[in-house]
């Protein structure tokens, strides 16, 4: 006799929505009230993977309360605050959907665009659909200016595949997610890694809204850190800049030497010449810049050699969550194979 289907077998998840969260208690009710009807209206099996990135407010408590009445909500709690990109990595590592959307909790990126992203990916066979900010008038002038500088720089360093004004609001196919999971990068910047894959892609545009509630999790310091990680992770250009700075300093020093010898021959030298001090300061500054640039790359090598996980999971509410890299069942976290030599 043919075997009867397993009554406990669940329908395959079509869409996963990954949301990194850190101290988002103020915006969570608004997020749930907008996101849940959007996903329900899709009519496909879905899950919401909320990654609590070590919040110290009532975020975890509210997530537990919402989960009582929302079975599709899955909470992945990290043991400590690991950063936005690491929390996003944790969500992508555990998302089960054939398509995965990454979304921030602040509602600046509208969840109402998710159905359009899914239709575009399915209709045109795309692996990536970017959410592109067509209007950023809700951001401050400095934020718009700094974002413009960042994307222009990244397009020059990483290539034209990096879309201007495309952040971390995007849809990925299972093939794209698996490709990202296979990469050995530890300090990940997904807005550069995803275009680098070269998978078929499209985009949807939207108007960026003001943050619904709470405070930004990307102050100036973190924006600078993101820019540094982006540059050093995708280009050796800063090292070449250091080389050119050294060459320029050498040319300037030759000019100063000629000028000094000429002045000496004409008897115009005086004790404590100001140009000597200026030259020393200039050379010292160039050397420090070059050492700092080298330090950034050496630091990345050091981090890779240490092979420490980017996050640790304290709890995953999925009833049958598999033991994955970075979980308590695998405390060593993601491992990067090192070359033998």
TrEMBL record:
Identify which top EC class this enzyme belongs to.
transferase
Q: Where in the sequence does UniProt note compositional bias of the Low complexity kind?
A: 319-333
User: What is the organism field in this record?
Assistant: Streptomyces parvulus
Q: What does the UniProt entry say about where the protein is found?
A: Membrane
Protein name, per record: Glycosyltransferase family 2 protein
EC number of this enzyme: 2.4.-.-
Its primary localisation, in coarse terms, equals membrane
Where are the bilayer-spanning segments? Answer: 244-266, 272-294
Q: Where is this region: Disordered?
A: 319-341
- Domain (Glycosyltransferase 2-like) spans 16-179
What InterPro entries does the record tag this protein with? Glyco_trans_2-like, Glycosyltransferase_2, Nucleotide-diphossugar_trans
**Classification via Pfam families:** Glycos_transf_2
Q: Which PANTHER family match?
A: PROPHAGE BACTOPRENOL GLUCOSYL TRANSFERASE HOMOLOG (PTHR48090:SF1), UNDECAPRENYL-PHOSPHATE 4-DEOXY-4-FORMAMIDO-L-ARABINOSE TRANSFERASE-RELATED (PTHR48090)
Higher taxonomy: Bacteria, Bacillati, Actinomycetota, Actinomycetes, Kitasatosporales
Recorded GO MF terms: glycosyltransferase activity
Family, per entry: Belongs to the glycosyltransferase 2 family.
**Record keywords, A-Z:** Glycosyltransferase, Membrane, Transferase, Transmembrane, Transmembrane helix
Q: How does it sit in the membrane?
A: Multi-pass membrane protein
């Amino acid at each position: 006799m043919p075997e009867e289907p397993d009554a406990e077998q669940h329908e395959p998840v079509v869409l996963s929505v990954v949301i990194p969260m850190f101290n988002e208690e103020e915006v969570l009710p608004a997020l749930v009230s907008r996101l849940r009807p959007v996903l329900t209206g899709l009519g496909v099996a879905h899950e919401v993977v909320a990654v609590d990135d070590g919040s110290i407010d009532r975020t975890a408590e509210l997530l537990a309360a919402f989960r009582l009445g929302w079975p599709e909500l899955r909470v992945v709690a990290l043991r400590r605050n690991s950063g936005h990109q690491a929390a996003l990595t944790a969500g992508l590592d555990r998302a089960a959907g054939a398509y995965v959307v990454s979304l921030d909790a602040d509602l600046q990126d509208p969840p109402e665009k998710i159905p359009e992203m899914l239709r575009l990916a399915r209709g045109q066979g795309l692996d990536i659909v970017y959410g592109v900010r067509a209007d950023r008038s809700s951001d401050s002038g400095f934020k718009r200016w700094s974002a413009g500088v960042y994307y222009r720089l990244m397009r020059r360093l990483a290539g034209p595949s990096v879309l201007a004004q495309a952040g971390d609001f995007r849809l990925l196919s299972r093939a794209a997610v698996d490709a990202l999971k296979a990469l050995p990068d530890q300090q990940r910047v997904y807005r550069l890694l995803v275009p680098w894959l070269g998978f078929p892609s499209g985009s949807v545009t939207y108007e960026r809204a003001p943050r619904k509630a709470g405070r930004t999790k990307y102050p100036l310091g973190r924006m600078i850190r993101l820019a540094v990680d982006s540059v050093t992770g995708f280009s050796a250009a800063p090292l070449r800049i250091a080389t050119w700075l050294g060459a320029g300093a050498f040319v300037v020093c030759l000019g100063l030497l000629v000028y000094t010898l000429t002045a000496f021959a004409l008897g115009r030298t005086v004790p404590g010449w100001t140009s000597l001090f200026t030259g020393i300061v200039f050379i010292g500054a160039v050397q420090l810049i070059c050492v700092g640039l080298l330090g950034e790359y050496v630091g990345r090598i050091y981090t890779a050699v240490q092979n420490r996980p980017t996050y640790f999971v304290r709890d995953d509410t999925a009833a049958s969550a598999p033991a994955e890299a970075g979980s308590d069942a695998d405390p060593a976290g993601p491992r990067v194979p090192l070359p033998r030599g």
